[in-house]
Amino acid sequence: MEWVNVVVQGTLLGGLYALFAAGLSLIFGVMRLVNIAHGDLIVLGAYLGLSVTTVLGLHPLLALILVVPVMAGFGYVLQRGILNQTLGKDILPPLLVTFGLSVIIQNTLLETYSADPQKMNAGALETASVSAAGLSVGLLPLLTFGTAIAVIATLQWIFYRTALGRAFRATSDNPEIAQLMGLNRRHIFGLAMALALGVTAIAGIMLGIRTSFDPSIGGGRLIFGFEAVIIGGLGNLWGTLAGGVILGVAQTIGAKIDPGWQLLAGHLAFLVILALRPNGLFPRIDG
Amino acid sequence: MAAFLQLDQVSKAFGAVTVADALSFDVPSGEALGVIGPNGAGKTSMFNLITGTLSPTSGRILFDGQDVTRSSAAKRCRAGMARSFQVPQPFSGMTVFENAMIAATQAGGMHGRTAEQFCLEVLDQTELLDRANTLAGGLTLLGRKRLELTRALCARPKLLMLDEIAGGLTDAECGALIQTIRDIHARGVTIIWIEHVVHALLAVVDRLIVIDFGRKIAEGAPRAIMESPEVQEIYLGIEADA
User: Fold this and answer.
1) What is the mean pLDDT of each run of 10 residues along chain B (242 residues)?
2) Does the pLDDT at position A196 exceed 70?
3) Looking at chain B from residue 96 to 115, which residues have their Cβ under 8 Å from any Cβ of chain A?
């Protein structure tokens, strides 16, 4: 029973990791951009949530209504203003520029909010739990997991059922022809980044309710996100959810054996999968 | 009457290589114009100049009463030009229907149900309806050529440019394709068709031009052009391997 509990907790933790990873996966899928600043953007989302909750006295989950559009708008401007200029045959410029962006975001947060750990207060939600079949499961982790599924289902729907998704896929499939057909690549990429940062805002707020955060933790969140994406297979959103769950379960199992092994166990699981299935467990099948 | 498409002394050179040399011709509205010439004569480059993926070194291109010489390819596409590519370039990870929808919504300016309905009609006409949900990357050569035609048609073109769409097809496949193109022409769409498969071309076009070394060397009624000595000379050996 103890171990069942460990797996359940790990699965729910995986929901948070999938939220970290979804934006990363989306951006890579649409424009082959590896966003090194992704972790710091998650933390930025958390801090924006903190500001909204302290200034307006809103519940963190209600803060989403403001933070998601703000982050999405920021994403569009960031893409059109800076990142579009870095995209080309060479993969190095986007890496360097997003690395620089990561440093800028971290230091801006440090300057604005100081290095003290912060946390958002979600009231009773933080400790509420439901019990079933001898297991006690926190309502917040459950909510996070449910949100991850909803986010990924929505992204999947946008990608495969809407005109916007068709435009995303056409642009990533054959940019020259897409351009000839009148698709404006810069605008499409801007929309993709807006969508990705909207999801990132959700990830940031879920993170900020669950644990304390400070400006330096972005790098770690980036690694979890990367690992989830790679375990699941590049460009496959449901795979990303599975990758997050595998990472989460590996971590809680590691922590169960020895509390110091939590992160190590996650990284080991990632390395094993990378060695055995370099393309991830569920790589996208191209026609 | 004014020409629907007019090339006026259009030239393009890459260093010492001239792909278009003071190329001038008119295409009246509703005409089907055939273009022939040896490999490397500059036929596809001429399409690139007309559609805007290449910009000319000198000369002017007029389309539907507008000077489009400096317009972007996307703008010309929305103004009513559509082309197929000699080497099919589908969005291979998307279905045939989705490929059509991109053309209909982006280039054709349609939305929602109207666009879907239109795409289905075009797919029916190009005989791809039963493959609508297949990934474009999984199509046969004929399927890919038909998809090129489908995408061009879904853009609701006023000017349809076909680049060697019959090349590599069997006689039966070619016959079906000719019928499809004839039907499109019959509805009043202006067509420019580059083709090595001469019998296919002659079954459709009203007029022929011959291009060699980026220059127009002959122009006129299809039969007369094919029988002229200079065409006979440059065309010997080409028809055989087409």
Assistant:
1) 85 88 92 90 91 91 91 87 90 93 90 93 92 92 91 92 88 88 91 91 92 89 86 63 44
2) yes
3) 98, 101-103, 105-107, 111
Integer Cα distance of B154 and B158 in angstroms: 11
What residue has token string 């893409």?
Answer: A79
Give the contacts of A88 (CB within 8 A, at least 6 positions apart).
none
Strand pairing category for B58-63 and B32-36? unpaired
Which residues of chain A make contact with B138, given a CB cutoff of 8 A? 287
Contact (CB, 8 A) for B184 and B190: no
Instruction: Tell me the pLDDT band of A245, cut-offs 50, 70 and 90.
Output: very high
The residue extents of the domains of chain A are 2-127+136-218
Domain layout of chain B by residue ranges: 5-80+157-241, 90-156
Fold of B5-80+157-241: Rossmann fold (3.40.50)
Comparing C-alpha atoms, which of B143, B134, B137, B89 is closest to residue A286? Answer: B137
Query: How many Å lie between the alpha carbon of B75 and the closest alpha carbon of chain A?
Result: 7
What number of other Cβ atoms are within 10 A of residue B187's Cβ? 8
Rounded to an integer, what distance in angstroms lies between the CA atom of residue B20 and that of residue B18? 6
Cβ–Cβ < 8 Å for A248, A16: yes
Q: Does B116 touch chain A (CB under 8 A)?
A: no
Q: Pick from B48, B83, B91, B116 the residue to mutate for testing the A interface (most A CBs within 10 Å).
A: B91
Mutate to test the interface with B, among A158, A169, A173, A184 (most CBs of B within 10 A): A173
What confidence tier does A285 reach under pLDDT thresholds 50, 70, 90? low
Q: Determine contact, residues B3/B26, Cβ cutoff 8 Å.
A: yes
Closest CA to B235 of B211, B200, B215: B211
